[in-house]
Prior knowledge:
Strand order of the largest sheet: 3-2-1-4-5-7-6
Strand content: 5-15%
Shape: globular
Distance between the termini: 46 Å
Largest sheet: 7 strands, mixed
Structural class: alpha/beta
Bound molecules: S-adenosylmethionine
CATH architecture of the largest domain: 3-Layer(aba) Sandwich
Low-confidence stretches: none
Helix content: 40-55%
Mean pLDDT: 94
CATH topology of the largest domain: Rossmann fold
CATH superfamily of the largest domain: Vaccinia Virus protein VP39
Number of domains: 2
Amino acid sequence: MTTEYRHTPVLLAEVTHYLSPHPGSIVVDGTLGGAGHAAKLASAIAPDGLLIGIDQDDAALAAAATTLRLGQQTRLLKGNFGDLDALLSDAKVPYVDGFLFDLGVSSPQLDFTERGFSYKGDAPLDMRMDPSAGGLTAADVVDSYQEADLARVIRDYGEERWASRIAAFIVAARARRPVTTTSELVDIIKAAVPAAARKDGPHPARRTFQALRIEVNRELEVLEQALEAAVRWLVPGGRIVVISYHSLEDRVVKQTFAKFAQGCTCPPGLPVCVCGAKPVLRVLTRRAVVPTQDEVERNPRSRSAKLRAAEKL
Ligand SMILES: C[S@@+](CC[C@H](N)C(=O)[O-])C[C@H]1O[C@@H](n2cnc3c(N)ncnc32)[C@H](O)[C@@H]1O
């Protein structure tokens, strides 16, 4: 495996603007990657701040450790941000002033074809962000799910209109022999998607690969858990910034922020509030912040990024 780890941080100035870190802040980067954002945050909170970097990927943690000056003020934790409570409690973090979640996969995860995230190249069909944690691989999902469940995953998480056909083609193919590599799956998807639909738009396998990655890593479920935990850890005035890369993630972020910003959960029509719930967040971004044209040209992988930010009341 190549050891070079290159990832250009997305919306860097906007992250700093909305997180507004200052010397002495405690900041958690829940998706450390190569520490592109974290390096900037670490210098903004120096000399006496505390930066906690979390990632579930060993290659990311190793790369970040070479970028950041580790020590009392900068600590790296291996784990899933879905376990935020346990990670922060075990590390004896007292409270948090700012959280960053820059979701999805890093460029190296896509570029190291052997991780099985990419529909380009050939590799075992894996897609687990933390293979050491065990759990189902994409090959296990493709091999063992009922056809209806495969179609649901591909439709719901890939927003793929040809989901049912792709699921049917997978089931037919695996009856002949197990589908174990990315290129075998790409060939099945290409056969399932009608030629006319393959002429324009993104690669025909892109949506199905996204869907399998979300399923394998339970991405939407752990995101919701992480956001709920983050809100509890924030001090009043503390901020949370999330960058998402597809509409399903963005919806979870938007709805979770809206839920905390709304407070009262009484059914509409009640003359007075009886639930007593108070808003705990103020949403800072009425609309998602997106990269400038210039950033997209410099870093095409920023194209689909959407940033949302909120402040604890
Ligand atoms: C887009 S990259 C972050 C890049 C980083 N902001 C930078 O500037 O280098 C996303 C990172 O989050 C990690 N990640 C994704 N989901 C995670 C989860 N549930 N728990 C922990 N880390 C996760 C991935 O392993 C990846 O390294």
